[in-house]
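*** Protein under study ***
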Amino acid sequence: MPGACLVVGAGDGLGASVARAFAAEGLAVCLTRRPRHLAALEALAGDIRAEGRAAHAFAVDARQESEIVALIDHIESGIGPLEAVIFNIGANVRFGVTDTSARVFTKVWEMACYAGFLTGREAARVMAPRGRGTVIFTGATASVRGGKGFAAFAAAKHALRALAQSMARELGPQGIHVAHVVIDGAIDGVFARQNMPDAAERLARAEILDPAEIARNYVWLHGQGRSAWTHEMDLRPWGETW
């Protein structure tokens, strides 16, 4: 069987671009979103198949341990050995700290950190016996700097970064490349277009991140030789303030 790539959080922007990029490398891409987004996910998988690539769509709540375990087992037994796993769930919300309820804080942590732990753990479970594989976590500016109104998001993203660091130190000697990518800036996509009236113009000037360019870097990370692995990479448009 050909190798497989799992993209957890294959949304309309970066997730879709990552899926297309790994499919172009010959991997069977397995795409997940929550059940309410299944129709859009099926459409993306169909577009990738129309290009002559292999793609599969799965409605999964990545916060549910049983669903992630079952998904990994299904891919391994019926689609192919996982060579790359991309955790790409965002969970970006903005609330003042006194307006952040316990439910909001917990839900953001579950989506942006706990789901990453489940995904990374199950990826390691099947990759370690083979002594190879790549796990990439999508980070954000909030992974390294907490901003006003982003207490929940920053806490979860900081925790995801720490998870990635621990996994890299433990799994690297077992042949598994764990990387964390800090996306420091707005990414073109549905969310950006809805919240930035000038998003198209900014993209034309390369002032916001092109998801296809980010995806190229993910594929490059996957292809790195073991003597020079990158653990953390930060990506930002040329005009972004450091």
Summary: The chain has eight helices and seven strands.
